[in-house]
Amino acid sequence: MEFRPIDDADLDDLLVLNQSFVPHVGPTDRERLGWLVEHACWARTTPARDAFLIALPPGTDYWSPNYAWIQARWRDFAYVDRIAVSTSLQGTGVGRALYEALFADMAAAGVGRITCEVNTRPPNPASIAFHERLGFRRAGVRGDAKGTVAMMSRPLP
To answer: Is residue 50 exposed (0-12), middle (13-18) or buried (19+ Cβ within 10 Å)?
Structure first.
């Protein structure tokens, strides 16, 4: 599968895709999505802009309490802030391919682990199962008035 770096011209389409998956993906706006891409250690999309993944490095001045939870526990990580795959592509292997490309690039860069969170309230059992198939394991739970998430981690070789 072909992926390329996200650039400014992609943001409007990726924002629409992102918003179609709220609450399973955090809501955002164009400015914040651009900020995430600018600060990412890995931000890729498909040529058709129908799937994307954005990961942040440690030490980013990011407002997310989930990112803060990860950063308080590990120093060597890439944090998957969001992944979205259009409904028409789900089940085709695009999400797995995005993660495998991330794993390969981060391992080559010497990163020790990939982290993320997945909703448990509201529930997202398909995403939990998907991440577990990729080797992620629950490292904890974080919750607030907006919901509860399983904090997940996958070591890299």
So the answer is: middle
pLDDT of residue 1: 87
Residue-number span of the structural domain to which 67 is assigned: 4-116
* pTM for this prediction: 0.96
Per the structure, the count of domains in the chain is 1
Q: Is residue 124 part of a domain?
A: no
Does 132 reside within a domain? Answer: no
Is residue 18 within 8 Å of residue 58, measured between CB atoms?
no
Asked if 36 contacts 43 with a C-beta cutoff of 8 angstroms, the reply is yes
Asked whether 67 and 28 are in contact (CB, 8 A), the reply is no
The residue with tokens 């706006």 is 29
Q: What is the pLDDT of residues 48-71, one digit of tens each?
A: 999 999 999 999 999 999 999 999
Residue 65 is assigned to a structural domain of this protein: yes
